[in-house]
Amino acid sequence: MPNAKPIAQQTLLTHDQRHEQGAVTPPIYQSSLFTFSDYDSMIARFRGESDQPLYSRVDNPTVKALQDKVAALEGGDACLAFASGMAAISNAILSVVQPGAKVVCVNHVYPDTYRFLRGFCQRFGITTQFVDGDDEAAVAAALSGASLLYLESPSSWVMSEQNLRQLATLARDAGVVTLIDNSWASPIFQQPLLYGIDIVVHSASKYISGHSDVVAGLVIASHQHINNIARHISPFLGGKLSANEASLLMRGLRTLPLRMKQHQQSALQLAEKLRDHPQVSAVCHPGLNPPAWSTLRGYSGLFSFAVTEQVDIPQFCNALQLFHMGVSWGGFESLVMPAISVINQASEFNSAQDFGVSPRLIRISVGLEETDDLWTDLTQALAAATHR
Ligand SMILES: *Cc1c(COP(=O)(O)O)cnc(C)c1O
Question: Which residues line ligand 1 (CB under 6 A)?
Answer without folding.
Answer: 84-86, 110, 152, 156, 181, 183, 203, 205-206, 215, 217, 328
